[in-house]
Specification:
Keywords: Membrane, Transmembrane, Transmembrane helix. The chain has about 170 residues and is of the alpha+beta class. It contains five helices and seven strands, in the order βααααββββββα.
């Protein structure tokens, strides 16, 4: 195994220690949704059901049940990222604390129960939010999303090192 060393002869590594939260997963889902432009469809259907609810309430002989159903459908469609995050959090939260290392060769996420090693070649690019660095997979539907919460870093300088390390291997999208 050959390890790519940095300028000073050691491998550049940034470590994160965190427990996944709903906000982390929602951030990943939203970045994925925006990249695939699904947020326009979600907001379109939400607006459509909202307009339908308004149209059902305005006539004097309107059906309250239809208006309530339309509002419920609109709210359900609007909440899809939160529902996905809830499901994903239930799937990963039992694993406890994550210790993630970002190196020149890729990303290694380790818990008490599992270790996941991902090479840079699995990702197409990354997007940075205020609190997260989100990596998106190469597959056409972006099924894999890796969320690196900045709160898991030891210091603000680690955020700069993480950004530099990720940007050396992936384009910002």
């Amino acid at each position: 195994m050959v390890v790519d060393m940095g300028r000073d002869g050691r491998q550049d590594t940034v470590e994160l220690v965190y427990r996944p939260t709903r906000a982390d997963i929602v951030a990943g889902v939203r970045v994925r949704e925006r990249r695939r432009r699904l947020h326009w469809i979600r907001w379109g259907f939400t607006g459509l059901f909202g307009a339908g609810a308004v149209l059902m309430v305005t006539p004097p002989d309107s059906s309250a049940q239809s208006a309530v159903t339309a509002v419920f459908c609109g709210a359900l469609i609007w909440s899809i990222p939160h529902l996905q995050a809830h499901h994903a959090l239930r799937t990963v939260s039992w694993q406890g604390e994550y210790r993630t290392s970002v190196t020149e060769t890729g990303i290694t996420a380790e818990t008490t129960h599992a270790t996941l090693v991902q090479r840079w070649s699995i990702f197409r690019g990354y997007r940075e939010t205020r609190d997260h660095v989100v990596l998106l997979s190469r597959d056409p539907n972006i099924l894999l999303v890796e969320v690196l919460p900045k709160r898991g870093l030891r210091s603000p300088q680690d955020a700069e090192r993480l950004r530099a390390l990720v940007s050396r291997h992936l384009p910002r999208i």
